[in-house]
């Protein structure tokens, strides 16, 4: 049976990040952590060690992040998705997303969060976001655009296979990057040694 593409809103709920006003202020000991753009990578997810504790001063009831939630960067030249996992450095701390993110939560048993993150970061979805982004200097994605993003939903078994393949590829990429870094360090060391010998 051929599967048709669904819209993101058919398989997930989407909400805006917490509406902080201005710069997010640090408030040590508050027990609430703010996840900002600087703390998130599409490859490694949330770096809890760099998140700051803050106080929520708005009237809106916070939708705290949960394991398996997805953060979607709504502003900037790269509208990536990242999985929320692990645990914050602050024991027992709750966490909220900054306004630059949409918080996506899988609501269907037909799709796995890890697969959805992978799919949102692939070229078909990225092309869709590029075509529907608004703004000239700072690009942004409207909530309805994200909600209508076309999502292919294969069987759970195939999703798990894709996740495993993606994880393997990520590990290989990290290994190659380390090899390149080591090679560049070696080349710089050789150049420095040659220069030192010229001075002798």
Provide a short characterization of the protein structure.
The chain has 200 residues and is an alpha+beta fold. The protein has helices spanning 8-11, 113-120, 123-132, 143-147, 156-199; strands at 6-7, 12-16, 32-35, 40-41, 45-46, 52-53, 70-73, 81-83, 94-97, 101-106, 150-151.
Summarize this structure as a short list of keywords or feature phrases.
single chain, 11 strands, 200 residues, alpha+beta, globular, Adenine-n6-DNA-methyltransferase TaqI, Chain A, domain 2, 18% strand, four-stranded antiparallel β-sheet, three-stranded mixed β-sheet
Would you write up a description of this structure?
With 200 residues, this protein is an alpha+beta fold. It has a single domain (6-153), classed as Adenine-n6-DNA-methyltransferase TaqI, Chain A, domain 2, CATH 3.90.220. It is built from five helices and eleven strands, in the order E-H-E-E-E-E-E-E-E-E-E-H-H-H-E-H. The chain has a four-stranded antiparallel β-sheet with strand order 2-10-7-8. A three-stranded mixed β-sheet has the order 6-3-9, with no helix packed on it. A hairpin with a 3-residue loop joins strand 4 and strand 5. The longest helix is centred in the C-terminal third of the chain and has 44 residues, at 156-199. The chain is globular, with a radius of gyration of 21 Å. The protein starts with 5 loop residues before the first strand and ends with a helix.
User: Approximately what portion of the residues adopt beta-strand conformation?
Assistant: 15-25%
In CATH, the homologous superfamily goes by the name: DNA methylase specificity domains
Shape: globular
Strand order across the largest sheet: 2-10-7-8
- For the record, give the distance between the C-alpha atoms at the N and C termini, rounded to a whole number: 76 Å
Count the helices. How many? 5
Largest sheet: 4 strands, antiparallel
Structural class: alpha+beta
H and E order: EHEEEEEEEEEHHHEH
Instruction: Provide the domain count.
Output: 1
Mean pLDDT: 88
The CATH architecture can be given as Alpha-Beta Complex
Radius of gyration: 21 Å
CATH class designation: Alpha Beta
Q: What name does the CATH topology carry? A: Adenine-n6-DNA-methyltransferase TaqI, Chain A, domain 2
Spans of at least 5 consecutive residues with low confidence: none
Number of strands: 11
Give the helix level as a range of percent.
25-40%
